[in-house]
Amino acid sequence: MMTRTRYVVLALAIIISLHYILSFSHEGYGNATSFEALSSKFNFGGQGPPGPQDGKVWHEPPYKTPVPEKYYLQPNGTITRKANAAIVMLARNGDLGGIVKSMTQLEAKFNARFGYPYVFLNEEPFSEEFKRAVSELTQNTLEFGLIPHDHWFQPPEIDEARAAAARKDMVDHDVIYGGSVPYRNMCRFNSGFFYRHELLQKYRYYWRVEPDVRFFCTLDYDPFLFMQDEGKKYGFTIALPEYERTIPTLWAAVREFVAANPELVAPDNAMGFLSDNGGESYNNCHFWSNFEIADLDLWRGEAYTKFFDHLDAKGGFYYERWGDAPVHSIGAALFARKDQIHFFEDIGYRHEPFQHCPQAPAHGRGQCECDITNNFDREGWSCLNRYDRIFT
């Protein structure tokens, strides 16, 4: 018995000795087995991914720290690893001209070098002309998906008389897309269904790209790997207020959900971006969701799934005109830590009528083709200052 015990003690001593030798001599092993790394795999005391940022005192927004060089292309242009990600484009056959413009720029500025696949989604089958035209623009993989009927069209439980009256009221008050049912279908689909499409199930990250947008700067690093390795959940380029008349009861629905599910709200969240009075009211700020680089698991998670179902049951996508931009923004702000929401200051982008033009030194590094003074970031009703303030 004593002999067996001595062998066990000797074996443990050897294992512990090897652990300390490897910890000091092999950086990767040391990082992987540190208490910080191990504890980040578990949830200590609340919803949301814990980790080295929990409880951190911020003095400036994270984007003020430049993207590490390790994410940039090497001088020989070799790609050694990629994230599990895709570029997602929601389009109709009639959007072909705008899709060609967007894809041509995205390929030239980024994707011809990095080689990420495209996923095209449409509520009707894509035409052979559409498929042929976009296939000529890239050497990368293309997939074309049909949106399930129930994910796109107005659900039968919506009271059409009430919805029609709401649309008429918005038309009478000149609300943009106020009378459009297809626009509402699109907002609801982007809010709660695009990430459920079968073609996206194999991916973890996505970049949403729309027709007729512009990309001004050469992007020589991989934003997907940056998101993955740095633990980011949601990325944006433009933040602005929503038109209040389109969402009069949205915040009441949000408050009702939070009151019933406080355990789902992430610690150290971005409520300060959404509200100027601790959540009593909504300041209407949102991330303009026609540009998104994000983690699909944020939407797939329990918190956002229950949140969307709660909103969908209210009918506000049809009885009002709830947009996917405020819905995604509120979801990201409540169910991710604030440092997991990233401002891509170095990606030049325009979706009419607003544009983000990177400032120095990012403007020079990206060889940006935009006027540095034509930049929405600090305009009077930009919400970027509110994003900045949650870190200071």
TrEMBL record:
Q: Does the keyword Repeat apply?
A: no
An example molecular function term from Gene Ontology annotations: alpha-1,2-mannosyltransferase activity
Cleavable signal peptide: 1-23
Entry's transmembrane regions: none
Task: State the name under which the record lists this protein.
Answer: Glycosyltransferase family 15 protein
Tell me which UniProt keywords the record has, alphabetically.
Signal, Transferase
Q: Which Pfam families match?
A: Glyco_transf_15
Q: Which Gene3D superfamilies match?
A: Spore Coat Polysaccharide Biosynthesis Protein SpsA, Chain A
